[in-house]
Amino acid sequence: MGLEQLSPIIDRLPAVKAPLVQPTLNQRLFYTAAVLVLFFAMYHIYPAGVIVGDDTQTQFLQMVMASKMGSLITTGIGPIVLASIFLQLFVGAKIINLDLSNPKNKALFQGAQKLLAIILALFEAYIYTNLMQIDPIFGDTGTRVLVALQIALGSILLLYFDEIIAKYGIGSGIGLFIAGGVSLSMITGLVGILTGYGGIPQANTVIYHLTEGGANAIPAAIIALVPIIATILVFAISVYAENIKVEIPLAFERARGYGGRFPIKFLYTSNMPVILAFAFISAIQLFGRMVAGLTFDLGGVKFSDIIAVYDPTGRLIGGFFYLISPSFPSPIALAGGVPVFINLMLTSSNTWMVPFMGAVLVPEYMHAIIYVLALVVMSVIFGMLWTETSGMTSRDVAGQLKGVGLSVPGFRRDPRMIEGILAKYIPVITILGSGFVGLLAGMADLTGALGTGTGILLTAGILHKTYEEMESRQMFEMYPALKGMLGEE
Q1: Are 257 and 346 found together in one domain?
Q2: Considering 125, 145, 170, which residue would you say is the last residue of a domain?
Q3: Total domain count, the chain
Q4: What's the confidence (pLDDT) of residue 62?
Q5: Which in 73, 220, 326, 387 has the greatest CB count within 10 A?
Q6: Residue 362 dihedral angles phi and psi, to the nearest 5°
Q7: What distance, in Å, lies between the first and last C-alpha atoms of the chain?
């Protein structure tokens, strides 16, 4: 199966034209800042027909998906990332036969991804309207259709903002939106822990403990600071991991004595595995809401009870999807703070309906362990898929190095030799690095870190990558000859 049949549709999709002249670093910074301002504007704009309310049930996933329930970006980057996941799976399973090293096929793949993202944006927008309070200004059905179209338009705009950043800005739009949303959450969370802003109980704030006085004032204030300490720790570990790498010496074939080192980072796939994993979790939670009404039996148990169970407020409280989702209470939002959170994790439990077995009691700490392990497994799988479909395999990198005239000193000038050397590192590092980011994200989520542990991890990686790109762009401007040498136009 190919994608050629979609070419007439793909060719008619609006696209952001590539610049005729590469923008300068200052111009790229301007475009990046402009898109970020538009993102925050959409973050605070609500579609006509929506009754504004707080949604704390999906707040965790909203953070990672750069979304805000009820706003124009209700679906966030979900459709964009989910479209990438589907096509990667199809290409990886050879359901779609495409050689992505071919520029024409790669362009076709990206066009199909854009088309699928638009379709998913419309579909997800419709599903989300069923989770919102609607003011039936045009009747219930008419208003929901209107709201769905507005939300879908917001997601489609994010798709094109991402394209603008890729061609005119710095980094990626997806990364920019995640970092922007997480940074906003960190600032509001910090103010909340200090003062009680944002619905955080006054009894959990640092100022409250210090003003109360007594022998336990300072220890209690330090405990209240645990989310901030966890935030700093996760950020530090993320930055440290970003700088771990294996370097392979290289030399130019036509200029002996000149060369450098090719770095293979421990986080070879960066934070993409976690982004893809959370897009998948977000998608299955939507699926869980769709099947919530299915009552047919499977092994004597209702199918909906096996998959996902929701309480009257819409909070996910049971089922398989609950076990692999970060459905934990936030330590800073609980009355009693961190000590109460720890007690809840150790003493509370939930029921999971299992086919042919009936009700099985699952302690909350087991839920945490299953969630972390599931996130690690999903991160490894998506990390391997991302490597295959983004031109980062040993064969792809060997071809790129050969194309710019680089080879490994002491070995024959044959791409297969370079590929053999890279194959000793890249597959292993892909698995280890992807598993590490999944483990760090999952463990950090349990600490109550501001902006969520996963959000901090993603933001640290995004900022580090953006800094590296800015550094390289500045180097290109100082030494234009490097552009041609490294394949830059």
Answers
A1: yes
A2: 170
A3: 2
A4: 76
A5: 73
A6: -115, 110
A7: 33
302 contact partners, CB below 8 Å, separation of at least 6: 294, 295, 296, 353
Of 144, 170, 196, the one marking the end of a domain is: 170
What are the residues whose beta carbons fall under 8 Å from the beta carbon of 145, sequence distance 6 or more? Answer: none
Q: What is the pLDDT of residues 97-111, one digit of tens each?
A: 777 667 787 788 888
| 380 or 138, which is more confident | 380
Question: What is the predicted pLDDT for the residue at 189?
Answer: 76
Same domain flag for 158 and 250:
no
- Specify whether 137 is located in the same domain as 258: no
What is the domain range of residue 101? Answer: 1-170
CATH number of the domain to which 105 belongs: 1.10.3370.10
The reply to whether 179 falls in a domain is no
pTM of the model as a whole: 0.76
Q: Does 129 fall in a domain?
A: yes
194, 331, 451 from 484: Cα distances, Å? 52, 52, 40
Q: 151-160, 178-187, 288-297 — which is least confidently predicted?
A: 288-297
pLDDT-derived band at 351, boundaries 50, 70, 90 = confident
Over residues 216-229, the mean pLDDT reads 78
